[in-house]
């Protein structure tokens, strides 16, 4: 979606591409509410008890699925479980789901803009999970930059207000105010064929979630 981004003083209005993802951190809250986990802090530890998701996929389409599908008849599912599936596989699939959704959105944005995304800044509660951030870097084949400040949206609004009242004269004065805490780069061992296979399997899981909701 095209969304209003900012306008400072008499400059022209700037717009941005916005990718709407229906569920991210809320899926972790759901898992806690139903007693699957005790809290977010145990996620990374549990996920690291296995080497991968065991070809299990979690699609958190609890009330439909947004960009780039836009289907309100999709519903959440876990798929790919077998007799050897462990809790670690399920937890890892939960951490992978927002990463794979982000890959879809970024790919859609790249097609619309004609520009490849090679770096992405992240913030929010889920970004403290190092495994998740490394997974995002691998699946996107891009650098993931985690800032020291977790709530960038609020800081951005404050910066825009400061620029408007001339507390700062220009963007150059403030663009480095928020420091990068850590950069996650794609693992060299994670090859392109592995990435494409993962994204294909995820797409297959999403397709199975579509059409299950009541019409």
- CATH level 1 class label: Alpha Beta
Largest sheet: 3 strands, mixed
Radius of gyration: 19 Å
The share of residues in extended strands comes to: 5-15%
- Kindly report the CATH topology: Nucleotidyltransferase, domain 5
What would you call the structural class? alpha+beta
Shape: globular
Overall average pLDDT: 89
Overview of the structural elements:
The protein has 215 residues and is an alpha+beta fold. The protein has one domain (7-209): Nucleotidyltransferase, domain 5 (2-Layer Sandwich), CATH 3.30.420. The chain is built from seven helices and seven strands; from the N terminus they run E-E-H-H-E-E-H-E-H-E-H-H-E-H. The strands form three sheets. Strands 5-6-7 form a three-stranded mixed beta sheet, covered by helices on one side. The chain has a two-stranded antiparallel sheet with strand order 1-2. It has a two-stranded antiparallel sheet with strand order 3-4. A hairpin with a 7-residue loop joins strand 1 and strand 2. It starts with a strand and ends in a 6-residue tail after the last helix.
């Amino acid at each position: 979606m095209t969304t209003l981004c900012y306008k400072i003083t008499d400059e022209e209005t700037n717009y941005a591409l916005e990718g709407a993802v229906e569920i991210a951190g809320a899926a972790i809250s759901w898992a806690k509410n139903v007693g699957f986990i005790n809290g977010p802090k145990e996620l990374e530890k549990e996920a690291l008890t296995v080497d991968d998701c065991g070809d299990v996929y979690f699609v958190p389409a609890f009330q439909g699925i947004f960009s780039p599908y836009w289907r309100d008849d999709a519903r959440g599912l876990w798929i790919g479980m077998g007799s050897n599936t462990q809790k670690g596989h399920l937890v890892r699939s939960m951490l992978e789901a927002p990463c794979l959704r982000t890959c879809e959105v970024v790919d859609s944005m790249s097609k619309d803009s004609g520009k490849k995304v090679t770096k992405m800044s992240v913030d929010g509660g889920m970004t403290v999970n190092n495994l998740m951030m490394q997974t995002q870097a691998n699946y996107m084949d891009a650098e993931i930059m985690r800032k020291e400040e977790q709530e960038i949206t609020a800081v951005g609004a404050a910066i825009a207000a400061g620029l408007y009242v001339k507390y700062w004269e220009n963007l150059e004065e403030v663009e480095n105010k928020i420091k990068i805490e850590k950069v996650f780069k794609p693992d060299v061992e994670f090859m392109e064929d592995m990435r494409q296979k993962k994204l294909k399997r995820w797409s297959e899981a999403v397709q199975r979630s579509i059409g299950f909701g009541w019409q």
